[in-house]
Amino acid sequence: MIVGIDLGTTNSLVGVYQDGQVKLIPNAFGEYLTPSVVALDDNDEIIVGKIAKERLVTHPDKTVSQFKRFMGTKHELTLGNRAYKAEELSSFIIRKLVDDAETYLGEKVEEVIVSVPAYFNDAQRYATKLAGKFAGVQIDRIINEPSAAALAKRSMVNQEDQSFIVVDFGGGTLDISVVELFDNIVEIVSIAGDNRLGGEDFTAAIAEEFLVSNQLTKDTISREFYGKILVQAEKTKLELNEKEEVKMTVLDQEQEYTLDLSYQRFYELCQPLLARVKAVLDRALMDARYSYVSSDNFVLVGGTSKLRLVQDFLSYCINQVVQVSDDPDRMIARGCALLAGIKERQGEIRDLLLSDICPFTLGIEIIGDRFSPIIERNSTLPASRIEQYYTAELGQSQVKIKVYQGEMMKASQNLFLGELEVPVPVNTRVNESFTVRFTYDLNGILDVEVKIDSTQEVFSHVILQDSVTLTEKEIKAKQAELTRYKINAQETEVYRFLIEKANRVYSMLLGRRRDELMAETRRFEEEVSQASVYHLPKLYQSFSNYLDFLERGL
Ligand code: ADP
Ligand code: MG
Asked: What are the record keywords, sorted (predicted)?
């Protein structure tokens, strides 16, 4: 059996193609979204998903989230007293989703198709495959997220028009892609994004307003207090989808702080964020040479697309009503599951992208930390371009060519890829000129060639995407290590989640209400330990209702 996984920064999903249709698979909580959060519990066991997310507030040192941002890098995140790379953490998520799928389907999962952002480079794609290996499943096929969303959309609406503007607005990133579909070919015409813009920023904007209006600053309050403000800000953000005015309240040290926030004021506060959304949209459309777009072409995916504010703003930008259609959280997973089905039937879909266009600009640093682009983003690959440069000073004996990838004006703000030093003939009368040729191929290998114009001498240097190459033996060792950790079993998940939630709610309550919660929790634990399996759901439900009731009162 092949399953499709949307391995998201904030949430992940798994789906399968069965009986001629896409089926998304619920987790132990009956939910499709599993938070991409990993935690270490008090027995040093790995916990994944919703329970781990509850512990973000209560055990920040033993919980990690948002690690997808570090895929393919050497950056490590600490969990308790051990450091993990993003691909190791991701392997726990994959393992959990595969377990859920196997439990649900009663079949073994042999292969997994995973989606990745279109701009993921080779190292990041490789890391994703490695995460699969660590989790003990095969990932032969990776699909680009916008391609998956477009495939899912096409299958749902049967639309004639085969061009899509996929707006994927998640927890921490915004990606807008123009995607065209013809038969079994998906062509990503352009991609643009802001990897520092997401739902969390809208939440942070509310938190900031809350601080300002209560004359507080982030640096002078406790981490715990700020954590509580963020939780309430998130709630307020969601409530503003339906209400025109929301009262936000946070308790800290027996004191109550409040903020009355209107939708209008929220819109104002978010102007700087919305301007960045516009910039990304414009860039995607300009690169695709689209001058007119219809709201029918829009595919809104990701949780933040559900923000009324975002839909209102996009509508304002194109002067037509843009709405989330179906399932914005699940479109990518649906596309992955669809592809799993196609692959099982031995079909193929060609997903034209990274292999075919270069999603970022490649260039070198010139004097004054300026960035000089050589291969521009969205160039068709393989690409080979030349630019001519001059030595900066008379009598210079060598030049240093520093190669960067990115879209920033300042070289140092882009991603440094490598450098080479080239001797130049010492010339005290005129500046020597030299030509730099970049050749970038389908495998992500950048060949840098420098030719001194006066002597025709050529120097070259090959830059490989800095991929982590591990030997089979190292992979086996990692797998063994990771299987040492037990991942939370499904049967007890709901129970453990409720206990963690009780802890979090407890941390937000005060005085008498705390004592009450503690007593209730004790009683719940006792009842569960004595109850028969058949009575558990009822016990869980009533304790869960009680916690929700307390939380609403916060
Ligand atoms: P990612 O792609 O990063 O894994 P998601 O697409 O799941 O993330 O989006 C998560 C974000 O969506 C969070 O910031 C959350 O606040 C936001 N979100 C979820 N539901 C809604 C909603 N109904 N309205 C507004 N924002 C929402
Ligand atoms: Mg996403």
From this structure: ATP-binding, Chaperone, Nucleotide-binding, Phosphoprotein, Stress response
